[in-house]
Amino acid sequence: DSDLIQKADERYRETLPNLPKGKGWMTQHLVQYQGFWVNPDAALKNLMWIQDHFKPRPTDIFLASFPKSGTTWLKALIFAIVNRTRYGFADHPLLTTGPHDCFPFLYAHLYEKDRSRFDLDGFPSPRLLSSHIPYASLPNSMTDNQSYRFIYICRDPKDVLVSTWLFMNKLRPKELAPLSLEEAFELFCQGISPYGPFWDHVLGYWRASLETPEKILFLKYEELKKEPFVIVKSLGEFLGYPFSLEEESKGVVEEIVKLCSFENLSNLEVNRTSVQKFSKGATVDNRHFFREGKVGDWRNYLTAEMVERLDEITYHNLLASGLLF
Ligand code: A3P
């Protein structure tokens, strides 16, 4: 395994100096790799490792998202749906373990000292794995497999922008001046944000979901907020864990929605006080993953001109695709 990590590191070292640079949100710079902007350290290394060495299993369940679109929420929901016969709601793992530990990122094991904690090969099936990798950059082994399942969650870019800006400024090292909203807005519009351009990211998964709807379920944060019961049921169906009539009449769907609600998760001790370790040096307080959890909080931050410009970019980029926000 360490040989493989070293190999990915070599490709990384050869590639990095040739990539275009842009201003970073959490780090000083982002670099553009295969059309998308990523953090030049961990994110790019991880991405290359996955492209070169990750071995999917036919039963894997992948959660894909643009950052700040509802990843944490979906992790909790999918974990609760798939494992609902294993755990009771009174002593459920999600009550004491953060969603990102229950449902790790694909590369979570790479920098873990205690490898056994995130030993991907040792994970029981179905493995629940997440990533922000754009669809076009996924290795063929992940997209060609006939049985793979992807859930993609997207969100109104105005809320994504605000959520990203506030989140990244919390994580931005003190040596770097905070990013102003005006600057963040400009960068976001130009596509220069982690895993941006936003619109290309969303369209990659949207088109793939139209081509292979049985493999990729495309969800919207706003719809999940509006009709959580309907969507949790369709998630169960899609993932091959349909809810029986008996489960429905016993209120299992409601229990899952309640367990994973913003109100419930954000008030748990584990999500208020513990820290999430993503890669070497990159630790994030769990509480940063729970801010407002609302639709339309952009109204409290963006000016009318910003809204008009961002909506216009979204309209133009998505017009031909049939995807609307
Ligand atoms: P806000 O910053 O708008 O509040 P991600 O998980 O992809 O990083 O996205 C984080 C966003 O999802 C944050 O949005 C966060 O508050 C919101 N969120 C986290 N858990 C949620 C939940 N259980 N229900 C609804 N929204 C949630």
Bound molecules: adenosine-3'-5'-diphosphate
Cα-to-Cα separation, first versus last residue: 43 Å
Strand content: 5-15%
Based on secondary structure, the structural category is alpha/beta
Radius of gyration from the CA trace? 19 Å
Question: What fraction, in percent, of the residue positions are helical?
Answer: 40-55%
Tertiary shape = globular
Name the poorly predicted regions.
none
Major sheet strand order: 5-4-6-7
GO biological process, one term: sulfation
GO cellular component, one term: cytoplasm
Enzyme class: transferase
Family: Belongs to the sulfotransferase 1 family.
Descriptive account of the structure:
- The chain is an alpha/beta fold.
- Helices cover 44% and strands 12% of the residues.
- The chain has helices at residues 2-15, 42-53, 71-82, 99-102, 140-143, 157-171, 181-189, 198-211, 221-226, 228-239, 245-250, 252-259, 262-267, 269-273, 304-318, and strands at 21-23, 29-33, 36-38, 61-65, 128-131, 149-154, 216-220, 275-279, 282-285.
- The longest helix has 15 residues, at 157-171.
- The protein is globular, with a radius of gyration of 19 Å.
- It starts with a helix and ends in a 7-residue tail after the last helix.
- Bound molecules: adenosine-3'-5'-diphosphate.
- Adenosine-3'-5'-diphosphate is lined by residues 65, 67-73, 159, 163, 260-262, 265, 289-293, 297.
